UniProtKB/TrEMBL annotation:
Binds 1 lipoyl cofactor covalently. The modification N6-lipoyllysine is found at K64. The gene is gcvH. Residues 23-105 form the Lipoyl-binding domain. The glycine cleavage system catalyzes the degradation of glycine. The H protein shuttles the methylamine group of glycine from the P protein to the T protein. It holds the Pfam family GCV_H. InterPro entries: 2-oxoA_DH_lipoyl-BS, Biotin_lipoyl, GCV_H, GCV_H/Fam206, GCV_H_sub, Single_hybrid_motif. The lineage of its organism: Bacteria, Bacillati, Actinomycetota, Actinomycetes, Micrococcales. This is Glycine cleavage system H protein. PROSITE patterns: BIOTINYL_LIPOYL, LIPOYL. The keyword Lipoprotein does not apply. PANTHER family: GLYCINE CLEAVAGE SYSTEM H PROTEIN, GLYCINE CLEAVAGE SYSTEM H PROTEIN-RELATED. HAMAP family: GcvH.
Amino acid sequence: MAAELPTTLQYTAEHEWVDASSPTTVGITAVAADALGDIVFVELPAVGSTIEAGAVIGEIESTKSVSELFSPVSGTVVEVNQDAVDDPSLVNSDPYGAGWLLRVDATATGALLSAEEYGALNP
């Protein structure tokens, strides 16, 4: 599994990924997307919202279940991926690319893992 994870990203134990460039981009991992199955709905915080690392910031609904989305960072939401909201299947087909979820002007991060550490938790 670890070989398939982009090593330029950081991860959370709750299956979110973080690209720490500015602004910080957040998405869910392929592990999460595969476990959820076909994603049919994505609810994200509004642009301008203040979010806290570790807090629930939205939901991802699939044909199997509904999962909460936890923020890996604290800061202000500066962009929401409207393409993923309009076509949630992008999160399944390209979770590390076109399926990103939001961009944040981050002021702090929560507990983040390297690709190797995340891969070890999700063999």
